[in-house]
């Protein structure tokens, strides 16, 4: 039957697929919600170098809502370049929807061009997870074992 490692891998991948698919569906269905607009101002770039030596940056700053409520600090700007030579400059028009929230305040804001595509990344991750799960089930032989087990069970029950 299934090894413990294979079963643990399947469970982790299944949780990943269900979680990211849920986020994707929630964000996709929330596209009709109103956008909370405001301005993002960069305060802290978070740059790192990968194994190949390439530098990429995440942009953190203060988001000030248009409605005049208090500014929110340590918000990530998603929608610009990761290139360290291309940071967001000045006040950038950004927003979020309630369906994008993981907490009471936004952790990420998007520019006007990307606000309607916040669902695509989790959808892609879910799709890749399904493909990987399917590949592993067939590659590790568990699909064939499951089919043989069902055939033996049917033969015993007389169906």
From TrEMBL:
TM annotation in the entry: 123-144
Keywords from the named record: Membrane, Transmembrane, Transmembrane helix
Stretches the record annotates as Disordered: 70-90
Protein name in the entry: Integral membrane protein
